[in-house]
Design a protein that fits this description.
This protein starts with a helix and ends in a 12-residue tail after the last helix. A hairpin with a 6-residue loop joins strand 1 and strand 2. The protein has a two-stranded antiparallel sheet. A two-stranded antiparallel ribbon has the order 3-4. A two-stranded antiparallel ribbon has the order 5-6. It is globular and about 80 Å long. The mean pLDDT is 83. The chain has nine helices and six strands. The longest helix has 33 residues. The protein has 226 residues and is mainly alpha-helical.
Length: 226
Amino acid sequence: MNTDFLEIVTNKEKVQKELIFYSLFLMVFENFVHHWKDTIRSFYSNGFAKDEQTGEYYDFVKVTWIDGVCHTSRDTEKEKDFNHIVFQRVKKNGRNNPKLSMFRWMADSQFIDDDDYIILEKCYEKRNDYAHDIAGCLNRFVTKEEKELLKSLIAISEKAAKKWILEIEIPTTPSEDLNMLLDEEGNYNPLDDVISGTQMFYSLVLANLKDIFDEKDEHADHEHCG
């Protein structure tokens, strides 16, 4: 047992700050993955129907007409194509990696850039460190680089969400409610203040945890998690 670990576990305030940081990182990362998985699936899916036998709902729908009656069924081929396009782009350790594949899809679709993808790869590795070896992480100190990585993750999340809103949601959802976003020529303004509810939540959380992020990195030379 090294002196760093003893220093942390005997310092209640320090333990709390370390755990808050790891928890926040995991929350942001998992929320990012879950949000974009659902968002991209909704983009590719073509409907919503209920399986009358199982009671389950599905969103890749095949429609057939028999004697003038509309019948719906799960479109397994279209769903298979979707999974291949989005979740089978990147292999890691010889196996498809759905998370990294989805990040690659986002980069290839220009919702993020290649530098963002590299950052998300690093976030993926850190996520695994924090989730599977939290005790080992507490044996170290959160570094300035790790704090900056979380800030970058949040920035990428905000950037991608804003681009999706401006380039997908607004243009495909014509409504009188959106007229305020039109300029004099009838084009949508690329508003800098467009923000999703998730990003607003992150902003509030980070404002309340400002002391953790602004804390001087007194242990920069010590071994850190990952």
